[in-house]
Amino acid sequence: MTIKRISSGGEYEAKVGYCRAVVAKGFVFVAGTCAQGDDIPEDIVGQCQSALDAIGKALAEAGASFADVVRVNYYLPDMSEFELCWPLLVETFGANPPAATVTECNLITPKDRIEIEVTAALP
After folding, report:
1. At what angle do helices 44-62 and 86-93 cross, to 10 degrees?
2. CA 31, CA 69: separation in Å to the nearest integer?
3. For the chain, how are helix, strand and coil distributed in percent, rounded to 5?
């Protein structure tokens, strides 16, 4: 079995010991992803978009897209904010909604408002 690891080069990959995504046995496993970059939005919708952009990039590098996502997990420190992301998530997954779980929990830093993890089947 061939395993492909996809790194984003983010600071936490080296600190924690993981990579953005792993391709194995016909699936793409994308690690929990928070907002990325030098200018991270403070609001949950902006952070959700940033996380989705990073996930989309990893999926594309693996040869997949959001249409191939079969499972998504959302992690939020404040569940009351999740509804603000719904229009963006409907736009992203559209006619191909994955199975989903939402968990309220602490994230890696107090400024993080959402973390998103996906699993996709390779087309």
Report:
1. 20
2. 13
3. 35, 30, 35
Q: Tell me how far apart the alpha carbons of residues 61 and 122 are, in angstroms, rounded to a whole number.
A: 11
User: Where does residue 42 fall: left (phi above 0), alpha (psi -120 to 50 degrees), or beta otherwise?
Assistant: alpha
- Phi, psi (rounded to 5 degrees) for 121: -90, 135
The CATH number assigned to the domain holding 25 equals 3.30.1330.40
For 5-56, the pLDDT digits (tens) are 999 887 778 888 889 999 999 999 999 999 988 899 999 999 999 999 999 9
The total number of structural domains that make up the chain: 1
115: containing domain: 4-121
Instruction: Output the furthest CA–CA distance in the chain (Å, rounded).
Output: 42
